[in-house]
Recover the amino acids of this structure.
């Protein structure tokens, strides 16, 4: 999202990230997060995630998926030391079983498109998001 931010900005699309972290975590890593051009909000109680229908993987499914990703080379930590530390702490302290997603809302806050991830690698493609944003 960070690399494609300008494409969304040209379309007057606002991006914000909702994470399963608490405000203390977000404050602690605000310098790391400030390298992103959009705001982060914490949902440590998962109330928004649950309301929107996001799913959690069992610890076993997440473990199996993680091991598989390691062997396939699909899981890498950031090279920057501070970013790497933030990711490791997030894995230890937050609800990493929660699967994210992508949502597009119109100017009336009505959902016009969404994708709910079914696994850690099941993210909406950026080109699809841009295409859908063009139709809003």
């Amino acid at each position: 999202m960070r690399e494609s931010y300008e494409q969304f900005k040209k379309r007057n699309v606002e991006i914000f990230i909702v994470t399963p972290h608490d405000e203390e975590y977000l404050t602690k890593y605000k310098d790391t997060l400030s390298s992103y051009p959009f705001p982060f909000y914490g949902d440590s109680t998962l109330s928004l995630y649950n309301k929107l229908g996001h799913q959690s993987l069992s610890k076993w499914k997440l473990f199996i998926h993680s091991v598989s990703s390691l062997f396939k080379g699909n899981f890498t930590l950031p090279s920057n030391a501070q970013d790497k530390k933030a990711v490791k702490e997030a894995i230890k302290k937050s609800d990493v079983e929660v699967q994210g997603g992508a949502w597009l809302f119109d100017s009336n806050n009505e959902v016009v498109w969404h994708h709910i991830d079914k696994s850690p690698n099941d993210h909406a493609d950026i080109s699809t998001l841009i295409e859908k944003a063009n139709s809003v």
